[in-house]
Design goal:
With about 750 residues, this protein is an alpha/beta fold. Bound molecules: S-adenosylmethionine.
């Protein structure tokens, strides 16, 4: 569940400082604020570290007085003294004791302009920040919110200062306060003759989602090298766009706090505070990250009904209604099953090379959906089997036997005469199989111990049942194992599964990026990991992109079919080489909104038999095998020598991936290139059209609200021209588009540093 804290302002603290004849507790103002917040159901408070006295002194010291002023020299001397030994006066800070800092989130002075245009102001703001940080560290503060960036021109200076302070404290979480979105950019509309004469009219455009604030964040965290203690405090003050897609980027970031002023709420028909629809949708989505919600101004009486408690109650209600949160709380869902494993990188299994442990099989067996699908597939195959006489089945790679048990169930349901061979190469699991034969299956089955690629099976079978699938379908060497098993499948026999397909999508996730590079060796950044993906954004969108050549959001790489008869086999019926199992795919993705590329998400879908299947494809899994728990997606990381590949809005990403093999191993290599599509030979914006201009609009500060976020100047490549030319003239003469390359990754995993072994 998300935690809720209330923002305590300097005014609140002043009120708590007033002597109260009845209060003999001797508590400090911040302690009183905490007690009151707790009594109102909050988990804690968020308060400024310093007060107006510090602000006034800093301004006096560091902002130059008018030239020629007699005080200038003396002040410069004092400023130099402060720079050499920065120290607070006792009445410039709001807290002084350890227990005041405990469970409180600290706001560093938000007027410090680390990105000021003036270099001296930047310099002195950085000293002041270091001073505040040192003091907060002295008081054991665990989380502090940094002054927000204001000025895109100098965001690099802001980020450099943050990077430098991050290394000075060993444990404190520093959160950058960012407005979620720069919504109030107003286009000066030159489109109509009226405007041409009377001047431009203003029009709010929320159909042109801006990623300006995300870009600022991206610059900051790149300069800070994705520091794991650098997080985000997202300010939800601005009205949000109706399209959620651009906001999904924040789910892929370390969003730890949501700042929600009472002024963001609107009254519903009865006067209670509620949030606009788009903010509601966003909150429902981001709640899966369990952020700390910082409510401010809730005691200002902005809404006629509900009182102060109404704000947190309402956000809690949104949290409960969040599909992601509901799924986590519902037994039987993947989200519930995967609690604690979200975004956790697991080395994929090597079931061919290793012998799995009983506990691993037990985890598999908790998935009712997979086995139900298998039973249906076996039942369907048996039902459709038209030849007379005994039907023979073989369960190849039986583990502890669930596929055997369900095959026997299916046989019973069809009432046909059948016999089942059971093959397993894990000697330990074979003990469990013997026990089950003795206690449950009797002479309906025959157990065979050995590797399906070499074992002798007494007769060829009609139906071969196996489950050797990995998260990417073929990655646990199912194709290679089943090639060997084809020896004992009759020429007209059936394989369950009949086929499986691998899918890929490019993703952004600072969490996964940091996890993968936590261990510094190259191999860890070239390993495809099994991950329950949560804090991610799929960067690609559907549609052809500007070049018209891009595929869907999640694209098919390749597939494998069984039985396959095209491999050249030797006298024992085994393939001479594994060349027929190599694959390569080149996929082109359209990236509608800019983002940082951190890796590829890999999924699979299998046809077991007929229309019965298994799928972890995000858009199809619910239709094919809803709530199946057995497979989390595969994450192919992209390593970055300097920083992850940045993909601008409307760029195109070409991903090439290979499945490669030698005598012993199978592995993947992957690589990506980014392009921008530009109209061939024509300027991007007609020379006759005025440049798109946007101005920022500050949301007026409401009493008690955290100071409204700064908005950031942003110039984007327009999606439509503002000249007389039609949109189609301007953009979509695909034939005359040229792709301009803007970046590439290195080749990942060359030679199979990370591979599946056991051929
Ligand atoms: C993913 S587990 C599935 C186990 C079980 N069928 C289930 O669905 O719960 C794959 C099983 O196949 C076995 N296996 C893998 N390769 C094999 C091979 N070449 N020959 C025989 N068994 C194999 C493994 O030991 C493991 O028990």
């Amino acid at each position: 569940m998300a935690a809720f804290v209330t923002h305590v302002t300097l005014d609140h603290l002043d009120r708590f400082a007033q002597p109260d004849a009845e209060d003999l507790s001797g508590k400090t103002p911040s302690q009183k604020a905490t007690t009151q917040a707790r009594s109102k159901g909050y988990d804690g408070i968020c308060l400024p570290l310093t007060n107006d006295k510090w602000k006034a002194r800093w301004r006096e010291l560091c902002l130059l007085p008018a030239e020629g002023s007699p005080a200038a020299e003396a002040l410069e001397q004092s400023a130099e003294n402060w720079r050499s030994r920065p120290v607070f006066l006792g009445d410039e800070v709001t807290i002084t004791r350890l227990d005041e800092a405990e469970n409180s989130i600290i706001l560093f002075s938000d007027w410090l302009e680390l990105d000021a245009t003036d270099a001296w102001v930047r310099h002195d703001a950085e000293i002041a920040l270091q001073q505040e940080l040192a003091y907060a560290s002295y008081l054991n503060v665990h989380t502090a919110i940094l002054p927000p960036p204001h000025n895109r021109e100098h965001v690099a200076s802001y980020a450099r200062a943050i990077n430098s302070v991050l290394s000075t404290v060993p444990y404190m979480q520093l959160s950058v306060r960012m407005p979620i979105y720069d919504p109030s950019m107003i286009h000066l509309d030159y489109g109509s003759p009226k405007n041409a004469t009377n001047g431009p009219s203003t029009k709010l455009v929320d159909d042109h989602p801006s990623i300006a604030t995300w870009e600022m964040w991206d610059t900051i965290r790149c300069i800070c090298d994705y520091h794991p203690r650098l997080t985000l405090a997202l300010d939800l003050t601005p009205p949000l766009p109706t399209s959620l897609d651009v906001l999904r980027q924040w789910v892929a970031e370390p969003t730890r706090h949501l700042c929600l002023p009472a002024s963001t709420f609107i009254p519903n028909a009865k006067g209670y505070p509620v949030l606009p629809k788009s903010t509601q949708s966003f909150i429902r989505e981001i709640m899966k990250l369990q952020p700390v919600v910082i409510l401010s101004g809730t005691d200002a009486g902005l809404h006629s009904k509900g009182g102060e408690a109404a704000y947190s109650q309402y956000v809690r209600h949104l949290e409960k209604a969040s599909p992601a949160v509901k799924a986590m709380q519902t037994e039987g869902t993947v989200e519930h099953f995967a609690q604690g494993y979200q975004d956790y990188l697991q080395a994929p299994l090597q079931p061919l090379m290793d012998n799995l442990q009983s506990i691993t099989y037990q985890t598999f067996e908790q998935d009712p959906v997979k086995y139900k699908q298998y039973e249906e597939a076996v039942f369907l195959a048996l039902s459709k089997w038209s030849k007379s006489g005994r039907i023979t089945l073989c369960v190849a790679g039986a583990g502890r036997g669930p596929l055997v048990a369900l095959s026997l169930n299916a046989i019973k349901r069809t009432n046909k005469e059948c016999f089942v061979y059971v093959v397993e190469k894990n000697p330990n699991a074979f003990v469990t199989l013997q026990e089950r034969k003795q206690n449950e299956w009797g002479d309906k089955v025959q157990l065979l111990f050995g590797d399906m690629r070499t074992i002798h099976v007494p007769e060829q079978v009609d139906i071969l049942v196996s489950e050797l699938l990995g998260s990417f379908g073929d990655n646990e060497l199912s194709p290679e194992c089943l090639d060997g098993a084809m020896r004992f499948l009759k020429p007209d026999g059936i394989s369950i599964p009949a086929s499986y397909t691998a899918y890929l999508a490019p993703i952004s996730s600072s969490k996964l990026y940091n996890e993968a590079r936590a261990s510094k060796d190259d191999k860890s950044l070239e390993t495809p990991y099994v991950v329950m993906l949560q804090s991610i954004k799929i960067l690609s969108g559907d549609g052809g992109g500007l070049s018209g050549k891009c595929g869907p959001q999640i694209q098919e790489c390749w597939d494998f079919e069984h039985p396959r008869r095209d491999a050249v086999v030797n006298s024992q019926g085994l393939p001479v080489t594994n060349s027929h199992n190599t694959r390569a795919a080149k996929l082109t993705f359209h990236v509608p909104h800019g983002g940082a590329l951190h890796g590829l998400a890999g999924y699979f879908e299998a046809v077991l038999y007929g229309n019965v299947g298994l799928s972890i494809h995000p858009q199809r899994m619910d239709k094919i095998s809803k709530d199946m728990l057995s497979w989390f997606p595969l994450f192919f990381p992209f390593k970055a020598r300097y920083e992850p590949l940045y993909l601008p809005s409307k760029s195109e990403l070409q991903v090439t991936i290979w499945r490669l093999t030698n005598q012993r191993q199978v592995w993947y290599e992957w690589y990506a290139e980014a392009f921008l599509a530009l109209p061939d030979g024509s300027p991007l914006v007609s020379a006759t059209s005025p440049p798109p201009r946007r101005i920022s609009l500050r949301v007026p500060t409401q009493p008690g609200a955290i100071e409204a976020s700064p908005f950031i100047d942003n110039v984007e490549i327009p999606e439509t021209p503002r000249s007389g030319r039609s949109e189609s003239d301007f953009i979509f003469d695909c034939a005359s588009m040229r792709l301009v390359k803007i970046g590439q990754t290195t080749l990942h995993n060359p030679g199979g540093r990370s591979s599946w072994i056991g051929l």
